[in-house]
Design goal:
The protein contains 8 helices and 2 strands. The chain has a two-stranded antiparallel ribbon with strand order 1-2. It is globular and about 40 Å long. The longest helix has 20 residues, at 133-152. By secondary structure, the chain is mainly alpha-helical. The protein has one domain (17-152): Hypothetical protein af1432 (Orthogonal Bundle). It starts with 6 loop residues before the first helix and ends with a helix. Helix content is 60%, strand content 3%. A hairpin with a 2-residue loop joins strand 1 and strand 2.
Length: 154
């Protein structure tokens, strides 16, 4: 299911990601498989786009810049979770903390962006609850995109 953005929305979305998605570190996500044939980079773009679309269409009032940046960085863990030793067994539980550590080291994040990244796997990560509307939207969008990619992108 493709979410339709108007040309103005597509431009706004691209502007919000400028300087975030085009860094060398962000581009590294293209080399890791996420679900099916989808790279981690493409998954993060899909979650950011879905979050942006939901926020606009449902008039949720989330800050678009925070929403899109947090969504884009939610899986910024920079490894192939299908092909690693110790981390993979617990990937679902630990990758939000790894992604947050990586993102915090490379980008100037605010508290809501940190919450988006840390809580996107809730309720699996019980202690990290979405505490802002942007984090709740990204948590829902991530699950929606992950299910679609797992079922239909093989």
């Amino acid at each position: 299911m493709a979410l339709h953005l108007s040309p103005a929305e597509a431009r706004r979305f691209s502007l919000l990601l400028q300087g975030w998605s085009d860094t060398e570190q962000a581009q590294q996500m293209r080399q890791y498989c996420q679900h099916g044939r989808i790279s981690t980079y493409d998954h993060c773009i899909s979650v950011a786009r879905t979050s942006f679309w939901l926020n606009r269409r449902l008039h949720l009032g989330g800050d678009e810049a925070i929403l899109v940046r947090g969504a884009f960085l939610h899986d910024f863990y920079l490894y192939d979770w299908h092909d690693c030793s110790d981390i993979c067994r617990w990937h679902g539980f630990v990758h939000p903390a790894i992604a947050l550590r990586n993102a915090d080291a490379r980008y100037a994040l605010n508290d809501r962006e940190r919450n988006i990244i840390a809580s996107h796997m809730w309720p699996l990560t019980l202690r990290h609850v979405p505490r802002c509307r942007e984090a709740a939207v990204v948590c829902l969008s991530d699950k929606t995109c992950s299910l679609r990619e797992t079922l239909f992108c093989r």
